[in-house]
What does this fold into?
Amino acid sequence: MVKKANIKTLILVPAQDQFGGVYNFYENLKPHLDEETDYFYVGEPKFRFNNKLIVSIIYVFKFFKILNKRKPQIVVLNTSLNLNAVLRDSIYVLISKLYRKEVIVFWRGWNFNNEKFLKFPYSIISSMLLKSNKAIVLYSEIGNSLKNLGYKKEIYQLTTMVGDLVFNQPEKEKRKETFDLIFLSRVEVYKGIGELLKAFVILKEKHSNFRLIIAGIGSEYNNIVNYVKENNIKDVLFSGYLKGNEKHELLSSGHLYVFPSYSEGMPNAVLEAMANGVPIITTPVGGLNDFFVEDEMGSFIKVKDVNSIVEKVEYLYSNEELRKSISQKNRIYAKEHFTGQVVYNKLNSIINN
It folds into this structure.
């Protein structure tokens, strides 16, 4: 039984159409919340206008109203390091401070090239974000950057989470007639889908039983579909966007989850694949560096390196016992670290510390 929080908290959550990953995180967290915690959805579709300034003004007034009505003691912001988010959330911090609220900034997205937005002249406004009472980051490198930017308060680290649904699923038997590589993510250039496809062509020449299943949509989706058709690449399957049971069915049926992304924060799909007991092949990006153990959870590959993908897939393909061991360890690790209850307990501790 989780102890009830004794501090009234208001969490600002981007609406689903704005930033799905953060929205889904807090939706999955809902069943574990205590009665003192409320959400304020910023950018709900029913208030959508073409003019972003009008939208921002509407939500500033709504924020004033909700502060007066609910009277929270703590405000939690979920922000990303891009100019629009930095300027918007700086205003929310300023308003919260004027109301004498404690502010926690949870940095959900961090682009190291955009750290300039926290420096002069942007800092005339954005410095408010560095005056929060606490900061939460997804991985240690962001915390180091905040310190270098002059942040003096306590910095906490928190992972994303996996929906409870996956932990209630029975372990699924793998197909014996094929060896399935799973790519579940947005289909974008920076996710490494091009390199993965090139690697698959090489692997397919050696292993006729290999299949590549691409689950997701994105700006590169049509280009990838056309490339597969034009080059007559066999056994590349497109499942489109999946969620809920369909997503977990696919992940649990895969032999390997391959994620050659160029840059990430804490990639939730990797955590979901681990929870489904799938060995991981991924680039050492973002928060994965803080916990991923080579040969215990899978293998790291080099960024933008086709041969590295081929090498690591071949290595795990030829080591069935190692794959089984990794599968069990990944399930256990995910259950111990990524469940809604575990993540909520950590967040609750940060809020009430």
Remarks:
- The first strand starts at residue 9 and ends at 14.
- The domain at 9-161+339-352 is CATH 3.40.50.2000 (Rossmann fold).
- The CA atoms of residues 48 and 269 lie 29 Å apart.
